Amino acid sequence: MSESKLVDDEETHLGALPVVDVTAVDISPNPAALTDELNLEVDFHLSKPVANGVWDIEYLVDSLGQVEATDYARGDNHFQFTAPQIDVTGIEPSQFTNCGLLIASLKGEEEGEIMDLKMVIQVSEQRGELQRIIYSPLE
Question: InterPro entries from the entry (predicted)?
Fold first, then answer.
């Protein structure tokens, strides 16, 4: 297959994906201890519907969970995710005292991967405990 055919196929696929406009991100508690509960709420606007859309939530190399599959309509939408705690068992503390990423990935049943919403996590040691601050990509 020629390189131009591959580029055309990729452009066709990308053109078929809905445009996602994230309008609000709420992260709580923030700041918090690294392993504390995490609540993430996102408002977003879709240019076209997404059937059985799911949001996969990951921190570093570990999946924190998935939002239940939902048919998202064209227009304004919302998802809410809660992880009762973040399990960091087996990960060296030195790997946290830096910046990391919390990624919420929207995937559609027909579209596959649609977008990644990336949030920077700053982890620092305070009074002998690892603390996290998660930055909204909208700020």
Answer: ASF1-like_sf
